[in-house]
Amino acid sequence: MEDSMLDDFLKRNREMADHSLERLRGLSESDKHWTARRSFLVRNLSDYPRDRLDYLVALSMVWSNHVFMGCRYSDQLMEKVLDMADGVHVEDAPHFTTRDEIMQQRK
Amino acid sequence: MQAKEVNGVKAPVDSSKPNPNEVEFDNLYLDMNGIIHPCTHPENKPAPKNEDEMMVAIFEYIDRLFNIVRPRRLLYMAIDGVAPRAKMNQQRSRRFRASKEGLELVEEKRQMREEVLSKGGFLPQEEVKERFDSNCITPGTEFMDNLAKCLRYYVADRVNNDPGWKSLTVILSDASVPGEGEHKIMDYIRRQRAQPNHDPNTHHCLCGADADLIMLGLATHEPNFTIIREEFKPNQPKPCALCNQLGHEIKECQGLPKEKQGEFDQLGSNPPIGSEAEFIFIRLTVLREYLERELTMASLPFKFDFERSVDDWVFMCFFVGNDFLPHLPSLEIREGAIDRLVGIYKNVVHKTGGYLTENGFVNLERVQMIMAAVGEAEDNIFKKRRDDDVSFRKRQKEKNKRMKTEAASFVPGGQLAPQPLGQRSGGSKPQPLQNARQTAYEMRVQGRDQQNKTSAHSNSSNSDGSPVPLGTKRKNGDNDDDDEPPDNIRLWEEGWKQRYYKNKFDVDASDDKFRRKVVESYVEGLCWVLQYYYQGCASWKWFYPFHYAPFASDFTDIKDMPSTFEKGTKPFKPLEQLMGVFPAASGNFLPKTWRALMENPDSSIIDFYPDDFAIDLNGKKYAWQGVALLPFVDERRLRAALEAVYPDLTPDEIRRNSLGSDVLFVGKHHKLFDFIVELQNSGAQDIEMSPELCHGIKGLLTLKDDVIKPGRTVESPVPALQDITENNVCSILFKDPQFEDGYTFKAALLPGAVKPSKVLKPADWEQSNQKQPWKPRLGFNPNRPQVHLDQAAFRTLGHVMSKDRSQGGSGVYSYTPPPLYQQAKNSRPPLMRAPPSLTVPLPSLRPQDSWRGPQPLFQQLIPQRNQGIEQQLAWNRILQSQTGMFQQNHHRLGSIMPNPYQSQDRRGRQGYPDRRYPLPPDSGRYSWN
After folding, report:
1. Is B750 on the interface with A (CB under 8 A)?
2. pTM for this model (two decimals)
3. Where are the domains of chain A?
4. Contact yes or no for A99 and B604 at CB 8 A
5. Is the ipTM of this complex over 0.90?
C-alpha cells in the first residue's frame, strides 16, 4: 500500500517535472532531439538547484548541439557533458564533419 | 571622376559644378558598411597600418563618391546598427567563420614564413601591427564608436570647406541607431514619401554593393532611383600576404627579391596594386522598363497594374534566397529560377484573381497556388539538375585532359612564326617570305628533335619532372570525382523528400507535425521579409529557427497560417547583440566579465559558443559555400546571464551600449541654419523642422549637449588632420517623421510623379519606323550629342589603340586566354554579393548592350554560384560574341568621346573578358553586419 502511494507520488512528481521541463523545449527541436535532451535534464536535475537551472540547460544544449548538430566545445566541457549523458539513449545519431576537419582534409 | 594628380599633389575637384554624368541627383544615400569593409581590410592592396589610416581611407572614398554623384539636397550616411533578430543567424555564421579564417591565415603565414626563411628567401620585416579583426565592424565596439566620431568631424569639415557641400543637408545614422544601414535608408525614404511635402520627383542615388538594394529600390516605387556601386572585377591580382608582391599566392611564396619591371620601376612602386575602384550606375528606371515588358499581361480578369506586379516580382525573388531565410531547394538562381517563377506567376495569376502582395502584406491563398505550381515541377527540376551536373563534370574532365595536351605540338618558327593581328613587329610590316624551302627544312629538323625529346621525357618522368619508378601509378591530379563530397540526399532519386528531412532535420518524413512547423516558420518568414522591405521591421524578435528550407510542395494549406507579429518588440542593445553574434575568439571586444560568459565552462550560456562547428557542404564544394550549423541563441537565457554582469559596465561602455539617434548637419549657407542655431540656443525636444526650408524634408529635431555649434572649434579625432577652428556648421539630433501605429505605407507611385522618358527600343519600332534606324539612348541624358570623328581622328585613334593593345594584352582583340577556372580552386569568395553580370545588361551604361533588346535579364540579376559557371558559359559566350561585334565599331567611338569622365567606364575600352571566373556565392556578401 505504502509502496503504491510512493509510486504514485513519484509518478505525479515526474509528470510535474516533465510539465515544467516542457517550457525548456526549443522552437526547432524535433521530438527525437527533445526526448533525448529531456532525458539528459531529468537525469541531472537533482544535482542542480533551481537557481542553477539555466546552467544545466546550457550543459544539455552543449550535449545536444554536439550530438545532433556536430558542435565541439572545450575538452573539459565535452568530457563533463558526455559523462552527464551516461545512459541517455540516442538512436542512430547523425554524423557530421566539422569545419576544422574539412580544413584538415584540404591540406 | 578622380582628382587629377600632379607631382603627387591632388588638384581638388569642384563638386558644385554641374555633374559630368549629365544628370543631377538630389539625394545620395551611403550604405556605409560597403565602404568601411574595403577601406579597412582591402583585398587588393596592402592594409592600412592603423586606425587613423583607415579613417582617412574612408574619408577619401566618400569624397570620390561625392564627386561622382554630387547630390544637391541631401547626403544620408547609414552605418549598420543592431540588426533584427532574423538576421542574427547569418551574422553569427559570418563572424564565426571570419574568426576561424583569420586564425588560419595567421598560422599559414607563420608556417610559410619559417619555410621561406629557412630556404634562404627574403621577406620584409614582419610588421608588428596586430591583425585587424574585421569582426570589430559590428555595432557596439570601440572601433564603431570612433568611426562615428570621425565621420562627424569629416562632415563638419566638408560642409565648412567644400563648395559642393555648403548648402547640403547631411544626416548621419551611426551604429548606435538600430537597424541595418540599407533599411535605415529605406525607412527614411518611406517616411518622407508618406508626408505631403515630399517632392515625388526626387532623384535618389543609393550607394552599396548589395543585390538587395535593387529590390529595395524597386520597393520604394520612386520613379527616379539609381544605384551606384563599385564595379566588380574578377580575378584582380592580390598581393601575396607574406612578401606583398603580386603574381603568386602565399602558398607559392619563395621570398625572391622583387623583379624590376622596366627602367623606372622604382618610381611607381605602388600603382598596380590597389588601382582605384571604378563605379557603375544601375538605373532602376531602366530595370523597371525591362520588368514592364516581362510582366505585362493582357486579358487579365482584373486590371493590370505594373506597380503591383513589381511588388509580386520582388516577393518571388525572396524564394530564391535572402539574408533571413535559406532558399527553397528547388529554386537555384543560376538555374533560371526567377524566369521559372515569372513563368509560373503569369500562368497562375489568371486564376488567383489578384496580386500576391499588397503594400508588403502577403495573400497566402494566392501564394499557395504559386507554390503548388513550383511543387509540381520540383521532381523534374532535381532530375534535370542532376543530369546537368553529370554532363558538366564529364565535360570538365575532358577539358582538363585536353588542357594537359593542349600546348601546341608544333609551332612554326622563323619567318613563318605566327604574328599577332594588327600589330607591327619591330616597327616593320610583315615581310614577304624568302627561301621557303630552306625554312621548311629547318622546321622539319626542329620538329623531329622536339618529338624525340618529348617522347623520351614522358616515358620516364612524372608531370613535375621527377622520374617515375617502374610499377607505380602516376600521380593523378585531375581526378575531380575524388574531391566531390558524397551526396546522400540524392534529390534526383525516388524518396528524396524522406532523405532530405532525415538528413537535414533528423526527422522522419512521416513526422507531419514537425514538417508543418518548418513550413509555418518559413511562411512567417516570407511575410516578415516582405513587411521588412515595405513597412519596416515588423518584429525585432522573429527569426527562422532552422538551417534549411522546406520544399515548395510542402506548402499546402498555408492560407490560415499566422502572418502577424508580436507588436512592440525592442532591438537588442549593442553589447547584447555582440554577445549574440561573436565567437569566443572575438571576446576581446567585450568587457571582461561579459567575455567570461563566452569562455568559462561554468557559464550559463556556454552552449552559444562552440569552438568548432559542422559545415554541411549541402552539395557545394568549398567550406565557405556550405551551411554552418551553429546553435541558435536563446534570448531569455542570454538576457538572464547578462543581468549579472550589467553592473560591471564602465560609464563609457554604458554609453556605447545605449541606443543613439541620427544627427543632422547643415552649414551657414543652408536655409535651415538659423532655425537650428535658434533651437541650439533655446533647447529643443522633438520640434518639427519646417519642410519648406529643406526641400520638403520633414523630421523632428532634438537638442543634445554634444552637438556641433557654430563658432566652436571641432576637434579632429585623427592626429594627421587639423581641428576646425572657424566652424560654421551646426548639428542636431534628427528623427524620421512619425506615424500612428498600424499606419500602412503605400507601395505605389505618388501623385505628381513624372515617369522618366523611355530608354528601351520600342518593341514595334521596325513596324512603325521603317526608314529610321533605332538610335540607342545612352547615358542619363536622352539628348546626348553624338560625336563624330573624321578620318584623321580615326587614324590617330588606331595608332593609340594598337599600341595600347600590344602592351596590355587586354584589349578587345586580345587573344590572351582568360584566367582559368582552376584558379577558382584557390580563390576566396569574391567580396561582392551581386554578380558582375548584374551590371552588364543595363543599356544606359554599356552602349553595346542596348542593341540586344530586353530578353536576357533575369537570369543575370542575382548572384550565381561557383558551380554553375561553366554551365552558363555557353550563353555567355554567345552574348560576348554578339557584343564584341558591336564593341568594335561602337566602342572605339564611345571610349574616346571627348568627355573626360567617360574614362571611368573602362570596360568599354577593354571589352569584357570572358567570364571564366568564380562567381560569388549567393550569400557571399562582405562579412559585414
Report:
1. no
2. 0.77
3. 3-93
4. no
5. no
